[in-house]
């Protein structure tokens, strides 16, 4: 991790925290090979970032004196609609979405999303947050993306998507004879990325009716985990 994420419950006084959970303590000891006197980058979940001076560290806990005085990086002005990936890929995609600064993520059903995907324990709130935190730690950010789960495609696209996408440029990442994905936009974007195999024609039509226009990245068909960073890097 490139940033130690802190929580309000870690603070014992205004400028001192005690970490006792095994993951963060082990990371300090084993990965950073830190010791008393070292300085680390830290950030308060949902708040400011800064530095911490290690007062004491052993295998069971770390005592840090903290200064938080820097704002986190700005989020991308993006709502990402993502057809639910297969469970193993979902974890990687959540980390990528968080690390790249997506503001809002909607996990959406699609005809090509297998019903079993919705039963995965990786969709539990705690499991989603765990992967999002890993992305924040990688990218040095403190603000979690908003995550919305929509299990019914048609009601969401017809009833809620138009309001969600209002005031933004709506795009559908989809292979085919469509305009090339635009580059370096300076506006808010709502972007829909389909499952492995892409959206079916009906879904593309419904997304278009909600104000999203199809765009493509070329002839190559990418995995979702590759399409997400490729599209975000191109757009922003």
Characterize the structure shown.
With 236 residues, the chain is α/β, with parallel strands linked by helices. The protein has two domains: 67 residues, Ribosomal Protein L25, Chain P; 160 residues, 3-Layer(aba) Sandwich (Alpha/beta knot), CATH 3.40.1280. 31% of the residues lie in helices and 29% in strands. It contains six helices and twelve strands. A six-stranded mixed β-sheet has the order 1-4-5-6-3-2. A six-stranded parallel β-sheet has the order 9-8-7-11-10-12, with helices on both faces. A hairpin with a 4-residue loop joins strand 5 and strand 6. Helix 2 packs across helix 3, helix 2 runs parallel beside helix 6 and helix 4 packs parallel to helix 5. The mean pLDDT is 94.
In short:
The chain has 236 residues and is an alpha/beta fold. The chain has six helices and twelve strands.
Which tags fit this structure?
Ribosomal Protein L25, Chain P, 2 domains, 12 strands, 236 residues, alpha/beta, six-stranded mixed sheet, six-stranded parallel sheet, Alpha/beta knot
Radius of gyration: 20 Å
Distance between the termini: 24 Å
For the largest sheet, list the strands in their spatial order: 1-4-5-6-3-2
Quaternary state of the chains:
single chain
- What value does the average pLDDT take? 94
Spell out the helices and strands N to C. EEEHEEEEHEHEHEEHEH
Architecture (CATH level 2) name of the largest domain = 3-Layer(aba) Sandwich
CATH topology of the largest domain: Alpha/beta knot
Largest sheet: number of strands, sense, barrel closure? 6 strands, mixed
CATH class descriptor name of the largest domain = Alpha Beta
Number of domains: 2
Q: Helix tally?
A: 6
Low-confidence stretches: none
Report the CATH superfamily of the largest domain: SPOUT methyltransferase, trefoil knot domain
Structure class: alpha/beta
């Amino acid at each position: 991790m490139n940033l130690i994420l802190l929580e309000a419950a870690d603070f014992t006084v205004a400028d001192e925290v005690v970490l006792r959970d095994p993951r963060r303590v082990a990371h300090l000891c084993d990965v950073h090979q830190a010791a008393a006197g070292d300085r680390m980058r830290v950030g308060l979940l949902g708040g400011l970032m800064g530095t911490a001076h290690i007062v004491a560290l052993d295998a069971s806990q770390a005592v840090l004196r903290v200064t938080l005085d820097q704002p986190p990086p700005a989020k991308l002005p993006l709502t990402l609609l993502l057809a639910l990936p297969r469970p193993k890929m979902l974890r990687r995609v959540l980390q990528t979405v968080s690390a790249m600064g997506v503001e809002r993520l909607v996990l959406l059903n699609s005809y090509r999303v297998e019903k079993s995907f919705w039963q995965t324990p990786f969709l539990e709130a705690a499991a989603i947050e765990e992967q999002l935190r890993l992305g924040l730690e990688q990218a040095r950010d403190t603000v979690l993306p908003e995550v919305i789960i929509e299990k019914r495609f048609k009601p969401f696209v017809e009833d809620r998507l138009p309001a969600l996408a209002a005031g933004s440029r709506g795009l559908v990442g989809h292979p085919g004879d469509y305009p090339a994905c635009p580059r370096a936009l300076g506006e808010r974007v709502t972007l829909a990325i389909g499952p492995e195999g892409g959206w079916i024609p009906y879904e593309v039509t419904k997304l278009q009716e909600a104000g999203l226009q199809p765009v493509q990245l070329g002839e190559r068909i990418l995995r979702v985990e590759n399409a997400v960073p490729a599209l975000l890097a191109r757009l922003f």
